[in-house]
Amino acid sequence: MVMIMEQQGNRWTRKRARKKVEKLEQQAEQKVKERVDDTAVTADAEKNAHYLVKLLGDSADVISRVFTIQYAPDRKAAVLYIDGLVNMAIVDQFILHPLMVEGERLKVKTDLWQMVNESLVQTGEMKQSTKMQEIVNGLLSGDTILFVDGSDTGLIIGTRGWEKRGVSEPRAEAVIRGPREGLTETIRINTSMIRRRLKDPDLRLKNYMVGKRTKTNVSLFYIEGVADPKVVQEVEKRIQNIQIDGVLESGYIEELIQDQIWTPFPQLQNTERPDAVVGHLLEGKVAILVDGTPNTLIAPAVFTQFYYSPEDYYERYLITSFLRMIRLLSLFIAMLLPALYIAFVSFHPEMIPSKLAIAMAAGRATVPFPSIVEALIMETSVEVLREASIRLPGPIGPTIGIVGALVIGDAAVSAGLVSPAMVIIVGLTTISSYANPYYNAAISLRLIRFPLMIVAATLGLYGITLALMLILLHLVQLKSFGVPYLAPFSPVNWTDMKDTLIRVPWQWMKDRPKLMKPGDTQRQEEGGNTT
User: Record's family (predicted)?
Assistant: First the structure.
């Protein structure tokens, strides 16, 4: 018995000792990672390479190559890169080949580091750094690192060449007339697409690195002299104040920099269209691009711009104005139609025309539920079908969504669970919600619809009126980077109303929107484009 107890005690002691060693190793590794901010590049190339390999945990995709430079056989160099993030043709032909083969043919006697930096490495993008933190960031971003014996400086060579998606039309922002190309997940492709459309020397681009672990590249675009400097400074400040371990999509940035959290209404607009980004930049707004996502954020944002389509500026003003009125009508239908049906049926049947009231009563004769339950059943079913159709693969999704809605609606009416009028109401509501050009604004209406249905079932039209007043008060006090959310209606600005509910001809819109406080207010030269 004593021997068994001794054996168990020894096992416990060994286990504690092993845990202590593991803890000490983790602490040592953590200290190395924390010291990387203060670590400088040494004059020993092999030592620098070994440090980086250990810092990255001897990862299998971290390639380290130590070799001798032919120009100086007594000096070594080290190249490091991450497999899959670099263009191997550039590494082989323009870094390794000149250093290992062509260097021996050069007869000019000069400083080795100067020769490597100015002659041997034949790439366009190159940066010197003495800080190991910058070296690590470059390595993890897809650059190739070069160390040379005798120099305490590392070269960060631009060799990024990972696989990427090609340019294609945005699925959620399709237009009949207009460009067919959309932004991609690679930030440099996106910046080039914007610059190709906006050849202005005043276009400014500022880069930030957000996320303690992901170190996601974030770019801020604006036109100097057009964008309000206060807005630019505020956006910069909020981006720089983000303290989070990772940013995987622009939605992280949107939620972290928006003015108010407790609201269903989006305070920044997102778009996948480069032409839409340029259009907003020309109005004095700023664009926030995030690496790894095609969705670009536009700030500031006001309520009316979520119901504009880029196509509004490619078609003539009469067509645009008609389409905007259709979208405005669909907004009210998507938000209020089920609530109004519930209020009329439950509280105000006298407001329904007699023949229509008789037809609706006949349809509801076999329905065992009150109108609010009937509406909630149908609305919930449609929301489930809508979400399921998005998750289903390829072309099957929309087909299943449409067929499922028809089958469920017909079966519900046949079973006497809902009335035919409710099926029509829910169908019109669903179709109207799709008329919104932007997905995040359409979701806001879907969220608001349910509280409106509940107050309609409780207080009738009085409840709907009260709820609409509260929503309006909420919208009035909302701001996006200092710009009132309901501008130009609150506060009233008659000049900016030329491009709100309707769009007037371009000849009448000579100035940029004043609500953005642009530096250069003039969009067209005086006396030009007149008829």
Answer: Belongs to the GerABKA family.
